[in-house]
Specification:
alpha+beta, five-stranded antiparallel sheet
Length: about 750
Amino acid sequence: MSIFLYKLSRLAFRRRWAMVGFWVVLLVAGGVGAATLSGPTVNTLSIPGTESQAAQDLLAERFPQSSTDGASARIVFESPAGTTLTDPAIRQSVSDLVSALGKDPEVAAVSDPYASGGVSPTGTIGYMQVSYTADSMDLPDSSKELLESAVHDAADSGLAVDVAGNVLMESSAESMGEVIGVAIAAVVLTVTFGSLVAAGLPLISALIGIGIAICTITIATGFIELGSSTTVLAMMLGLAVAIDYSLFIVSRYRSELRDGHDPEIAAGRAAGTAGSAVVFAGLTVLIALAGLFVVNIPFLTSMGLAAAFAVAVAVVISLTLLPATLGFAGSRVMSRSDRRLLASGGELTHRKQSEGAGSRWAKFVIRRRVPVLLASVLGLGLLAIPTFGINLSLASPPVPDTTAARATDRLSEGFGAGFSGPLMVVVDVADAADPAAALSGAQEKLGALPDVAAVTPPALNQAGDTAVVTVVPSSGPETEATKALVADIREVAGSLTDETGATMSVTGQTALTIDVSDRLADALVPYLALVVGLAFILLMLVFRSILVPLKATLGFLLSIGATFGVLVAIFQWGWFAGILGIEGQTGSVVAMLPIFMIGIVFGLAMDYQVFLVTRMREAFVHGDGPDEAVVKGFDQGARVVTAAALIMIAVFAGFIFGGDAFIMQIGLGLSFAVLFDAFVIRMTVVPAVMSLLGSRAWWFPSWLDRLVPNVDVEGEQLTALLEIRRNPVNPRATSCRCDPDTVDR
């Protein structure tokens, strides 16, 4: 592989105008396609094979006005002090509100609170449910304006009125977080390289790559359904890894220039060594993201594949466009002092350099390897403790001091905690001998269950073969009692079928959350087996070792556990909620976050493992002792890995402020995951463990060594091949089986 990448990079370097032109044309074409072929994104969640999804599909077919996919509004009102909703004047105001909303041609149904049980026992708080024919994204502005006008008129009559639901939900404001993240990345690159040109090349390559990826994903929305968060997540990951991959190659290019190679040869050698590490690091991320298909949740699969595509583009860009831009930059990627020395005829390889901070840190860790290792493991273990109390949910609490939050609070006050998470029970009476008796029996069975606060009368569709019964739990939607109620409803459904021939199934947000949690729990083990197993094999090929991939996997488990612990402390317990601006929005972690984080963090963790440990192996295979190889490899890679980690943290942190709960939580989670993995696991635990293992770290059974291919990620064959060309009788190169005359073809 190293020889192929060497040739590819030199070709891109020599044909730089053609290569840059190709990528620019691709970007422009993608932009035109995105502007003309894109379609709408969706916010609905589909979970094939679950009862809640089957119930939603049945509703969409037979009872579309009750489907949970459409736009809806729940209008909550409270009578003035000293009055009740049954007072004639107040009742007239509520009736006028119902009548005004019913005039909207986009409204499918408006419930009458007096006829549907929408008045609290105290008679002071009530609500009405408004269902629309279109979803919230396609609802015309006239419908929203009519709703706002009707609510305003009701408020003028003395009612306190608030609205919950997705009708008046505005699109998230554009956040400057991504721009700030890129700006911080530019500063880190400039400080790391001491050259604006060297700092600019990774950014330019990354922005072109992410532009092409996002345009392609946007085009795909015109042909397939993609979630609204798919593009944001692909941008987040694609931008971070693109900058990091380019950073590693530019850093190696500068190192090759210091060794006296001309720019074209330096670009080829950089791609043959650091580029090989980029390929395998990218493959681990691709495996982790594409492996999400085993969960069998289309929403997650599409997000994983889109993000994987963005990462793949980042890898290809770093191996083709970046060498081309290096052709334009030449030696200007060096710092000013290095360029002055080269101009005066000096040799950078002979410059006396003091011991670097990376070397000093590695030596400190090796001297104190046991206490350092114990402190790191115990620290991450303590941070992971909150993970055992994680509470997962699909719903996000409303933002405080908004009309949605006030509506939710009033409903809980008037009807109980369970009213914010009602269960939608779908009764199919198409095969029932006596549909009326079946519906009566369903209502009776539901009302007899424990933890039920209210059961609404069945609402039949026009065909009379399907009815919807709303069950209001006594407990809140996140409680174990409500989860048990869902299980009880599904249990009594069987007896209803036996007695009447009717079928009964439960759906709604709470039931969806339970089904998602069960699906994710069932998929976790096969997902981990797939991702970790394939990545372990890949790392075994890269390092030709058993213990190094095992250590990498165990380190990942520590960092992901600590990351989940931090997420629980912030989003569930409310720590630092004020600083992050999420007061009142805490209480749970987004249900899909754990398995998604596992895939992404595993891929990113292996990035740093590959980039750092390959330099250690490179030193070891060239004759250095175990500890010396750790120090030398760490010294060569630590500065760049530090910069890469800071860039990733900056990019991910840019998505914390603004956006929906899932993107916010995953942005914060990835920031902490990179922090823990790069600075605690890879920078501390790895050198300590490598020193403890000594030469045993590189043990590889001889029989396995003969079976697996040699991918030569360190570029050993490339180095030997180039050495043959320079000195054909050099015995160091005799192990290379390649023809030296083909290296430039």
